[in-house]
Amino acid sequence: MSLFHMHTRKIRRSIALLLGTGLSLAVAPQLHAADVSAPAPNAPAKEQILPGKIVYAQLTTPDLDKAKTFYGSLLGWTFKDVTVSKGRYTQAIVNGRPVAGLVERPNMVAHGDPLWLPFISVQDVRAAANAAKVWGGHILFKLQNVIGRGDESVISDPQGGLFAALRSATGDTPDDTTPPQQGEWVWNALLTSKPYEAAGFYQKLFGYQVEAAPDAKRGSAYLLESQSITRATINPLPPRLPDGAHARWMNFVQVDNVGATAQKAVELGGKVLVQPHPDRQDTIIAILADPSGAAFGVMEWHDTATTGDAK
Question: Is residue 142 packed enough to be buried (19+ CB in 10 Å), middle (13-18) or exposed (0-12)?
């Protein structure tokens, strides 16, 4: 394994361990076998597909203007409106590159609750969608080609966790070891009632290497890796949720100060679902909801490895 991958994997695994026990959202051994036209996010010049990498996130919201005000004021995002065939769509920009898409659906009753949807890279979207059905998933939006972005399909896993499979038209952004900055996505976690079954589903669908999360109870939490880099964790749904609650993906944004961000979210009309609290390795996390109710996480992640303080 290259030094590049070793360093990146160490950083990503450290983040993964942070969420193994500290995440309490009101929200093992190796397992064996939106309809808009928008530019691709930060596409590299040469096509490179990294199956299993979570490459993008998209918010579906009933009020785009309110969402832009909220996330712009809270995270420092700027926005670039994109002309689409129907509805309204904008891209969130951080340090000159797109980090997310926001699509407006005024009639959310017909489109489900407001939510952040992760996009996971695949080599073949049609094959992934067909495989998802075989292994107990459901296709919510069948394959379509989005001009400038590529082939995509929105899928539900067997426990109801929603994600999009994406084959980028211009390739995935290469992994690097640059520490995340304010407003950039830093981590992803799947919360589910059946972590072991979910780990098997995602392993078969995306080719992940699956490892039991250290210090987790047997069968309760897993790490998902591709290209020797930890991409996400799978954690159990918190007990406070009602029986039969659907699985859900939770995306985390890097912020400079979680406490101040949570306070400001409330001032901007959002809510704090899980209060700021310290997690492992001096990291702080919180779970917030925007004014429409879409949940997301914020995190203060400090790369202690670069200062020699890695534990």
Answer: exposed
Nearest to 15 by CA among 298, 281, 294: 281
- 104 vs 95: CA distance, rounded Å: 24
**Residue 183 and residue 298: Cα distance in Å, rounded?**
9
Whole-number pLDDT of residue 128: 97
- Which residues make beta-bridge pairs with 57? 118
Q: Is the distance from CB of 210 to CB of 199 less than 8 angstroms?
A: yes
* pLDDT on residue 229: 94
Q: What are 114-133's pLDDT values in tens digits?
A: 999 999 999 999 999 999 99
Cα–Cα distance, 170 to 38 (Å, whole number)? 13
pLDDT in tens, 8-17: 444 444 444 4
| Residue 219 falls in which region: left (phi positive, over 0), alpha (psi -120 to 50) or beta | left
How many angstroms separate the first and last alpha carbons of the chain? 21
